[in-house]
Amino acid sequence: MIIPPGFCQRSISTKLGRMAYYTADMAVFPGAVFAGKILPPLVFLHGFGGGSSAYEWSKVYPAFALDHCILAPDLVGWGRSEHPERNYLAEDYISTIIEFLEQTCTEPVTVVASSLTAALTIRAAISRPDLFKSLILTTPTGLSDFGKDYTRSFFIQLVKTPIIDRLLYSLGIATSSGIRNFLEQRQFARPDRVYPEIVEAYLASAQQPNAEYAALSFVRGDLSFDLALYMPQLKVPTAIMWGKESQFTEAEVGQRLAYLNPDAVRHFQLLDDCGLTPQLELPAIAIALIRRFLSSLDS
Question: Is residue 282 part of a domain?
Fold first, then answer.
């Protein structure tokens, strides 16, 4: 949970719990106003997994701080936000995303979101299109898309077993070696791109008190759903980038999701030599694409 220089932490209260978020420090950046102009908000939402937090976007969002009012929250159950002891469901995060936008933004906003959170953001935009200006998404997946059920594996069945689930989390997930192995083998296309700071940030988030509740809800599949059932309902202009080497969801699934609603999905960009999180693996490429999508979707 490393905050980039020039940014500070604030928080709001939601029905699910206290939610920390990161925004520009007015002593370093001009804050919400630059050259007499009110800056438009730009929200960055991280994905889910052991140790996830707003750090996931921390190599990207500072590049937009002179043009936008940056808001990068730790979702409840992750990072420095509150970690209620509960089994989390998709509806919990959909309502919390809506609450966060209602409390922090006074106009429709562009949301940049990742993986399962990106899919939840699509559902939030369907429910409350008045809150959204556009969506820029990396690998949006409900993890049960087109009827696929990944929860049938032996490992997932173990995670569903009381007591064993917490042992697996503490011994296999919330450790330096466990996080590094996951990042190298499952999240990144190239292991040499996983440097110590990334492992440190994920580990700090994973070892927060009660961090296992949200993480295990994710691993068990409690947050998963079939995004294909919702895509045709989306009206908000959307751009998608998808790493070709993503191991969770194949690029073909992403293309099928985009084809379900070509009116809303204006751009679909495949990224070579990249896994699930281009914002961490190839941040310069992610920044360039987000700038291009912001301009295109606005026009």
Answer: yes
The answer to whether 274 and 244 are in contact (CB under 8 A) is: yes
User: What is the tens place of the pLDDT at every residue in 232-262?
Assistant: 999 999 999 999 998 878 899 999 999 999 9
What count of other Cβ atoms lies within 10 Å of the Cβ of residue 291? 13
Question: What radius of gyration, in Å, describes the C-alpha atoms of the chain?
Answer: 18
State the residue range of the domain holding 159: 7-298
Residue with tokens 């173990």: 158
pTM exceeds cut of 0.85: yes
Residue 85 main-chain phi, psi, to 5 deg: -80, 95
CA dihedral 232, 267, 240, 17 (to 10 degrees): -70
241, β-bridge pairs? 138, 269
Contact 18, 11 (CB under 8 A): yes
Q: CB count, 10 Å around CB of 23? A: 21
Whether 2 is in a domain gets the answer no
The verdict on residue 207 lying in a domain is: yes
What is the domain-level CATH number for residue 52?
3.40.50.1820
Q: Can you say how many angstroms the Cα of residue 282 is from the centroid of all Cα atoms in its chain? A: 16
Q: Which amino acid is at 271?
A: L
* Amino acid at residue number 203: L
